[in-house]
Amino acid sequence: DNDSAFWDVDASMNGIDLNASANWLIQKQKREGEANGSWSDWGYISNDVEWTGFISENLKNEYPYLNDTMKIEVNASLDRSCNWLLTHNYTNEDTQALSYAILGLVAIRDHGIGNAEEIDITVGALKGQLYNKSTPSGSEIYWSDSSRWDTYESTASAVLALNKSGMLADELSGGITHLI
Questions:
Q1: CA–CA distance, 143 with 158 (Å, rounded to integer)
Q2: Which of 64, 58, 71 is nearest to 25 (CA)?
Q3: Contact, 57 vs 113, CB < 8 A?
Q4: From the CB of residue 29, how many other CB atoms can be counted at a distance below 10 Å?
Q5: What are phi and psi of 38, to 5 degrees?
Q6: 40: closest CA among 95, 86, 84, 94?
Q7: Which residues are bridge partners to 42 per DSSP?
Q8: Weakly modelled stretches of the chain, pLDDT under 50
Q9: Residue in 16, 17, 22 with CA at minimum distance from that of residue 78
């Protein structure tokens, strides 16, 4: 939304209100049926898994700066996201979606929401699925995604997600080499 009066943002950025921002995002979260707990596509990202992981990670990171009322709302939102991400069928998901599912679930787990053991099992399965989407090329490894035209964003997302899932940097060095 480009309503600068609503956001009270000017060139100084002094008017940024993370509580209003978090509330706006939470109001966009789906609350009914099979999609309950997910976010739907608008803008650049068009995949519900990618959106849900991305926003969950962001809400977790904004949490320390929110007022007590919004902290309650963020926890409830992250709980809905956790349930949706844990029950989603990832069979046909591509690199970006798998990466953001991992990033979102790890953020939710680290925030203390959901069953950590169940999250770890799901993250482990997603980690294997994501790593299997890599393409070796000499000393490099890269990832691609059907929704992207190059390999750099997908590779960067995959490397970050796999690292967050427990893979060590030396195991990911081929992806890092590709990015450099």
A1: 7
A2: 58
A3: no
A4: 22
A5: -100, 170
A6: 84
A7: 45
A8: 1
A9: 22
Q: How far apart are the first and last CA of the chain?
A: 35
Three-state SS letters, 97-121: HHHHHHHHHHHHHHHCCCCHHHHHH
Length of the chain, in residues = 180
Rounded Cα distance between 116 and 110, Å, is 8
Distance CA 38, CA 175 (A): 29
DSSP 40-79: --BTTB--HHHHHHHHHHHHHHHGGGS-HHHHHHHHHHHH
Please name the residues in contact with 173: beta carbons below 8 A apart, sequence gap of 6 or more. Answer: none
Token digits for 173? 């060095």
Cβ atoms < 10 Å from Cβ of 67: 12
Rg (CA), the chain: 17
Candidates 177, 175, 171; CA nearest to 156 is: 175
- The pLDDT value given to residue 1: 45
**Cα separations (Å) of 48 from 36, 89, 108, 159?**
11, 12, 17, 21
pTM above 0.85, yes or no: yes
Backbone φ, ψ for residue 45 (5° rounding): -90, 130
Q: Which amino acid is at 102?
A: I
